[in-house]
Design a protein that fits this description.
Spore Coat Polysaccharide Biosynthesis Protein SpsA, Chain A; 14 helices; UDP N-Acetylglucosamine Acyltransferase, domain 1; single chain
Length: 475
């Protein structure tokens, strides 16, 4: 069976949110709605799907790619918007499909797809079977193309969770209820650090800022210790909440800055737009010290990435005289095997089958020499490819990631892996625990000044006797 994922509705009832992206890409539970749909399909053992797109097609394709992250094969159809079931069936008849599953991607459901398919299999003669929850269309329909056309038969899935996101208020409530856990089977892109508090990867949420229940902070977000998050606060990824800000019953969408002493209650915020749900109106805040968008212009992002890679290439050029020394020392240490491959967890992100972000592993090389800094010279190449930053924590192996860790050790997972690591620059007598503590402290306090400080420390290290002393690997 193949699925047809419908992501082509314009959804004017969700404006102004749908003026910036399509409804299927709106975030709920730390990930776009359509990713919840893909996870449900994977759980139902459906591996091939057509994605019907209309508005913002480039955004959808950029977000999903070819579906490999979910173990699926995705193909895209461009439509004029809200394509009819009859039109879809005509397309698929030419591709010799026996039955198809139509599923809307701008609806949020609990994990009842498998249950629906099991019930549908008990009705072999029906040509069209649709799911509902409490009489509400669930945006889920099984069509048997080889059967004679008959009226749609409905399967009502009593007790399941469903939200069709009928308006902005419904989107606000659903975003909060998903975090509360009222949609069983949905995977949140965050881990529960305490009861009713979820924090995403590379995010900072001080305990002093939590003043209520049901708080969700998405990936790469930061909350100031003097901010106040009361009940039902949902922050998407890349959000900053400054000192003195007070939030209650608020859904904040990606790339938003909430300024110092700003108070927001019962609203949806995206960049400098705030939608007051009690009056049903959207307002644009002109003062960037109160609300602002932090979404980076694609050109700016590309320039920043190009500058980083250029710096890595310059560093490689400056290191040219060292490569002959690296070769000679490695051959002298082990003539038969002067190099060995090492598999490390880098900075480029991938997503596992559940949709959770994870670091992508990469392969680098180590020389056989026991001179510490020379042994890791090939890691400069990994900086050029983006797998490492110039400054960061010690890159972990897959075995390191599997080891149980304390809460304070997990802090280092929020920082990038680096060529120069505070843990590696600790005194030679420092234990593995002390090195990890140094990395965790760096991760909790990192910033531009901190990175420049450790970059300077790394340069000074090359002038010390320890840098040239013959020592075993730090790992």
């Amino acid at each position: 069976m193949k699925a047809v994922i419908l992501a082509d509705r314009s959804r004017p009832e969700l404006k102004p949110l749908t003026e910036r992206t399509c409804a299927a890409l709106l975030p709920v539970g730390g990930k776009p709605l359509i990713e919840h749909t893909l996870e449900a399909l994977f759980d139902a053992d459906i591996r091939e799907a057509y994605v019907v797109i209309s508005e913002f097609p480039d955004q959808v394709e950029a977000q999903l790619g070819d579906g490999e992250r979910w173990g699926m094969d995705l193909r895209y159809w461009l439509s004029r918007g809200d394509e009819s079931v009859a039109s879809i069936c005509r397309r698929l008849r030419h591709q010799n499909e026996d039955e198809i599953l139509l599923i809307r991607a701008d609806v949020i459901r609990s994990s009842f797809l498998t249950r629906f398919l099991d019930l549908a299999s008990m009705r072999p003669g029906a040509s069209r079977l649709a799911a509902s929850v409490g009489g509400v269309d669930a945006g889920l329909e099984l069509i048997r193309l080889r059967e004679d056309a008959r009226p749609t038969k409905w399967i009502d899935l009593v007790g399941e969770g469903l939200s069709v996101l009928s308006d902005l208020g419904d989107f606000h409530v659903t975003s909060i209820e998903v975090v509360r856990g009222t949609f069983p089977g949905l995977n949140l892109r965050a881990r529960e650090v305490s009861p009713h508090v979820h924090v995403g990867r590379r995010s900072v949420l001080p305990s002093t800022s939590i003043r209520g229940e049901n708080v969700f902070v998405g990936s790469r977000s930061r909350v100031h210790p003097r901010a106040r998050l009361s009940d039902d606060v949902v922050l998407s990824e890349d959000v900053i909440v400054d000192a003195g800000a007070r939030l209650r019953s608020v859904v904040v969408l990606p790339g938003t800055y909430i300024g110092a002493s700003t108070e927001v209650d019962n609203a949806i915020v995206w960049g400098n737009q705030v939608i007051h749900l009690d009056v049903g109106k959207a307002a644009t805040v002109r003062d960037p010290s109160l609300l602002a968008s932090m979404e980076q212009n694609p050109v700016t992002r590309a320039l920043a990435e190009a500058a980083r890679r250029l710096a890595a290439v310059v560093a490689l050029g400056l290191s040219a005289p060292l490569w002959p020394l690296f070769t000679v020392c490695s051959l002298a240490a082990n003539l038969r095997n002067p190099l060995r491959p090492v598999r490390l967890m880098g900075n480029r992100e991938a997503e596992d089958v559940g949709g959770s972000p994870t670091r992508r592993a990469f392969t680098t090389w180590e020389g056989a020499t026991k001179i510490p800094w020379l042994r890791h010279l090939p890691r400069l190449l990994s900086v050029a490819t983006g797998d490492l930053e110039f400054v960061g924590v010690c890159p972990a192996t897959k075995e390191d990631r599997k080891r149980p860790t304390e809460d304070w050790e997990r802090v280092s997972e929020e920082a990038p892996s680096g060529l120069i690591a505070p843990g590696a620059l600790q005194p030679a007598t420092a234990s593995r625990l002390e090195r990890r503590m140094a990395d965790s402290f760096y991760a909790a306090t990192r910033g531009t000044r901190t990175d420049l400080y450790w970059l300077f420390r790394g340069a000074l290290f090359l002038t010390t006797r320890r840098a040239w002393a013959s020592t075993p690997s730090l790992r």
